[in-house]
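Q: Can I see a sequence and its folded structure?
A: Here is a first one.
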Amino acid sequence: MSPLPPQPLSPLDGRYRRAVGALGEYLSEAGLNRARVQVEVEWLIFLTDRELFGSRRLDPEQQRRLRLLVTEFGQAEIDELAELEGTTRHDVKAVEYLVRRRLDALGLTDVAELTHFACTSEDINNLSYGLTVGQAVREVWLPRLREVVAALEERAKAHRDVPMLAHTHGQPATPTTFGKELAVTVHRLRGVIRRIESVEVLGKFSGATGTFSAHLAAGPDVDWPTLSREFVTSLGLVWNPLTTQIESHDWQVELFQAASHAGRILHNLCTDVWTYISMGYLTQIPQAGATGSSTMPHKINPIRFENAEANLELASALFDSLAQTLVTSRLQRDLTDSTTQRNIGVAFGHSLLALDNIARGLDEVAVDEEKLAADLDGNWEVLGEAIQTVIRAEVTAGRSSIADPYALLKELTRGKRVGAAELRDFVEGLDLTDEAKARLVALTPGGYTGLASALVDHLDD
């Protein structure tokens, strides 16, 4: 067997690259290294701006040319870093050497020793992950999640008045509307999105064990905590003053748990949509050229929602693993977080792929109102709840002497099919006022949806 040419091992980088490739701008190894270069460059400029240790302030043109290393970071820098790391066997040290080479090329050798000054690798890494993960969530993942929520909201409002037989424990239950059920999912996801938006991306910049020891040894009269805070916040991050060698990753844990929570809500949506399709409540719109089965020509499979289910399960497993691992670091530092964090992009990749499938899947289904109406008309027994509740209110008001209304309706309806005529005759024979009887006789399963439609208005709160 002849060997294959180099192939992507992950389907995210192969089959599904079109759907998730935008994350690579931030959460790939190259994206991480570009952020590392950014942190190194900005720290150097930050120090020279303050003319520490007799350094000279770089003029605007020198700063601009130095920052081009970040904005023009590309394949040449990726290859050069690989070559450097082949010697250093240390990824952050390779970045430091790359920056030093560029300083030499720019005639800035006199400030080269301020490159990576007083930094441990984790000072660079934690800020780089803060930048890349924050940008990936804000620029790619969260907008796609909001698009899905917006699509669900649009459908919730469009179908707010479409009555549907509810099913609790898989059995016919008090009717609702299709739109109200979608609104529940929208409301849940909005809550999680608020949690995600409120996560503060933290950063530390305090040396080998978080004590500013090397800083103080080099500059005993410098207010290093204040400079650290100023530098971290200049990158758009929130300063963490109390850390070990690493930033404790608690913000990442909070983010990943919320992302996993959102995924589980979406998984619930997918299983419900799949079930509605199997029940005929939703019909699938044929897509030109698509094949549902290699042998059964009639089939249209709900593959978008099945694919989304699987990818949400993978994403949640990874998010949960990330959260579990990153919350712990032995003593002042161990390396378990290093490999773990390299899979952040994989977790968000599977989640983004699921969002893409859900968005496309929603465009490929339609509500079958005739099927919904037929199912409601075949389950008049669900009005037993309304009848026994009205009787109890009438008994309480002294307008009826019926004993144990619940048992009375249980005997009539439990495990039985009861039609409109039977219920009408049953109600007419009850000890109720004419007004109460008229209200009950006028009820239909399709009209017994309570405030379902009005509840959708809460999406505009």
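Q: Show me another, different protein.
A: A second, unrelated one:
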Amino acid sequence: MRDLSGIVKAYDIRGVVGEQLDAGLVRDFGAAFARLVGGPTIVIGHDMRDSSPELSRAFAEGAQAQGVNVISIGLASTDMLYFASGKLDLPGAMFTASHNPAQYNGIKLCRAGASPVGQDTGLGQIRQDAENQVPDAEGVAKGTFEERNMLADYAAYLNQLVDLKSIRPLKIVVDAGNGMGGYTVPQVFEGLPIEVVPMYFELDGSFPNHEANPLDPKNIVDLQARTKAEGADAGVAFDGDADRCFVVDENGDPVSPSAITALVAVRELAKDPGGTIIHNLITSHAVPEIVKEHGGKPVRTRVGHSFIKEEMAKTGAIFGGEHSAHYYFRDFWRADTGMLAALHVLAALGEQDGPLSKLTEVYNRYAASGEINSTVADQAGRIAAIKDAYGSKDGVTIDELDGLTVQLADGSWFNLRASNTEPLLRLNVEAATPEAVVALSDEVLAIVRA
């Protein structure tokens, strides 16, 4: 029996094509998914990677061999696949490795209505079935295969949720990173009073210009420079599968995902007073403060889309945001969509006369370190050492909802979490000033890296 533990992750399937992932294996994943959801129909989409069309077709063949019908929407962003799953009320599979390098590919799965499939909600069963190589269903007619383009429907739906037609004219630079934003942005922004300056819109899964991961500062350098050179009102960057967006202001300065979370939360609360807003425990403390100030109910969760979506379903939350630039909307089947978050930011900007830097400064209350990674052999031991070092200090509170979160008496705090896939500890620090962030980071890292 083959061992697929190396590629079946907590939330998706991901591996190196030709070494860990090939058409034969993906056919088995398709069969296993069809057995899990029981049919009668699933929807699939794929990104621009060279291997994606072949792998998505193999997945479809595996599902069809189980008697399940397949609707293929072809090229798509991940949130476009979620849209199709929600609109058609069908289970879905998206072929993408997001921001991973060109040699990778993967599969993100969901049940009908874009409900997530993770390790405990079906992915473990899919792995087990695929390891045993699912036989074709006997005595069952092969499922049908239909191609359907849903790009126009996706764009129209987003534009129903955020009205941009009456805002003042804006000029924005968009860096698609040769990913799926280059496919979706032209359709979504057509007819709006927004001049789009495109960067790297050519679909190219080899990522010739830079990695399609806008959270890494080196990958937004081009966007920052172009935004300033064009005299644009803002810059927006999407990751490879365009489910995350990152924003820079008119000066090219990054707008933190926490500030975007707070801004969008305020807009959603204006439509739905008293609503619940989800934020993960690494977002700035400014987020729950601002949510409360606008009459909302902040709810803190673990990091990760399955936890966010689960909590949104449980609480009826209207919106959720993560430090990683994932944004979740009740009106989008509780799924994450970077495009919808970007439209909210541009609507907020265009509804008033000031620059984006002025608009967002009210959401930036504290200084933050960003994620600092340390390679550590004994992750649990180092976390225990941090707990011992800070647990006895006056005014300190500690919780272990996700890793270790330490709140200090002066209002500063940090979270230390182990990576699920690498021998890394991830540190995030927030404090009143940049100097205080550096001091606290150095103090914690001295113990982590000892």
